[in-house]
Write a structure and sequence with these properties.
seven-stranded parallel beta sheet; about 45% helix
Length: about 260
Amino acid sequence: MQLFDLTGKVAVITGSSRGIGLAVAERMAEHGARVVISSRKAGPCDEAAAAINAKHGEGRAIAIPANIASKEDLQRLVDETMAAWGRIDIVVCNAATNPYAGPMAGISDEQFDKILQNNVVSNHWLIQMAAPQMLERKDGAIVIISSIGGLRGNSLIGAYNISKAADMQLARNLAVEWGPSNVRVNCIAPGLIQTDFAKYLWENPDLLKQVTDPAPLKRMGQPDEIAGAAVYLASPAASYMTGQTLVVDGGITIAW
């Protein structure tokens, strides 16, 4: 058994038409997995799946668009994956939203609800839909993309950070419940990664310097630098790891 081998595994990855999700899908395919590309819009999903198939051979990736806010869409994502490949071995909950930046006193109920729905409840839905066949086989790996925001206070993205802390607790709870069935649940907590999602933080050179200067590595990360952590957590290399949050942040959380 090779430590990072995902041959024969089926991975469902949300928010995987770009950014961190796409990098995870590409690397999991490279390590042998069949991957399901899923985000809201069909076009970008089809393009991402086609690119992976062109590189790794036909049938390595399929596109199943889904809106994570819709329980029906998530059920269809699971059902269509099962119909196509008969199993789900890996779930990566990567899709998230943050419609508000500013002090907590200014957030609307609708914005707060949307953050908690998409970043926590939708992850819970998808995991619960995919887990039964993992539990039956006594084999599965679930990876939730959280954030270092879940470990720290912040005056700009407080509600988002609350949701990301909740994801860490979701992983801990499910790890306790499902450990006896050999289904592992872990989080990754990225720091600042150069994605469209975090564009407002890195487009402005002054703000970027302010955010990266305190970090030992003095730079932001790239999506591919999170993908390696996801491959590790989904692979035999992490077979004794569950309920944990793996921080990948250039060292920012350990530096004054």
